[in-house]
Write a structure and sequence with these properties.
Blueprint lengths: L2 E8 L5 H9 L2 E8 L2 E9 H11 L4 E5 L6 E10 L6 E8 L6 E10 L3 H4 L3 E4 L3 E6 L8 E4 L8 E3 L10 E2 L6 E6 L22 H13 L1
Parallel strand pairs: 1-4, 2-6, 7-10
Antiparallel strand pairs: 1-3, 2-3, 4-5, 5-6, 7-9, 8-13, 9-12, 11-13
Length: 217
């Protein structure tokens, strides 16, 4: 995995008001934590963070540089975004060691065109990412799954994914990744019930019986 440099600043003020001031200044509140270190509040340029996510996505290995201090190797653990505009509000970095394996969620990308879809089936991707275990430098950007042989009713599982060397897929091998389901048939409307002659709430046979005495009279 390619490594990226990211300049950060130490953050002293905390709380909602301080976070808002940072965002107005074009910065994003951040935190660095991990095994063996105390949590460190940071601030990072919003533009630099956007550029990083655009190039490497969330599974990116970052060298965090704080002034003249020693850089820290980290990965993005969590991103909080605004519910309406999608802007990053907060970001958590997790310090990693390049010699210790970690787990990470990797996107599953479908490639090819399923024949079952051409025949009217519906492609349903049930699993969009899987958990893998490997060294930070070996985390793949994504795992591809070929669907070019999927017919209607066929399914591909986690066991059908092929991981790069030195990468172990932690997810259950039996979990469904993608399937081609048969399109739901349109329900036919029920046949309309035959019209029944009703005379002021009285059934036709009853109406004839009640009319006979009047005719004799």
């Amino acid at each position: 995995m390619e490594q990226h440099e990211l300049m950060v600043e130490m953050r002293t003020a905390s709380g909602t008001s301080a976070a808002r001031r940072l965002r107005r200044a074009g910065m994003v509140p951040a935190v660095l934590y991990g095994r063996g270190i105390d949590s460190q509040p940071l601030a990072v340029s919003a533009k630099s963070l956007r550029d990083l996510l655009h190039v490497g996505g969330q599974n990116v290995l970052v060298r965090l540089s704080v002034g003249d201090g020693e850089p820290a190797m980290a990965m993005i653990k969590e991103i909080q975004r605004h519910s309406l505009n999608g802007l990053v509000l907060n970001v958590d970095f997790y310090k990693v060691s390049l010699t210790e394996k970690i787990t990470a969620d990797v996107p599953v990308i479908l490639v090819g065109e399923a024949p079952g879809v051409k025949l009217g089936g519906v492609l349903d991707q049930v699993l969009r990412q899987v958990e893998v275990e490997c060294l930070p430098t070996d985390i793949p950007q994504s795992l591809e799954l070929n669907v070019s042989e999927l017919q209607i009713g066929h399914t591909l599982h986690v066991s059908d994914l092929v991981a790069p060397e030195n990468v172990i897929i932690v997810a259950d091998a039996a979990d469904v990744v993608v399937t081609v389901a048969r399109a739901a048939e349109e329900e036919k409307p029920a046949a309309p019930a035959p019209e029944e002659a009703v005379e002021e709430g009285v059934a036709p046979a009853e109406a004839e019986e009640e009319a006979e005495p009047a005719a004799e009279a």
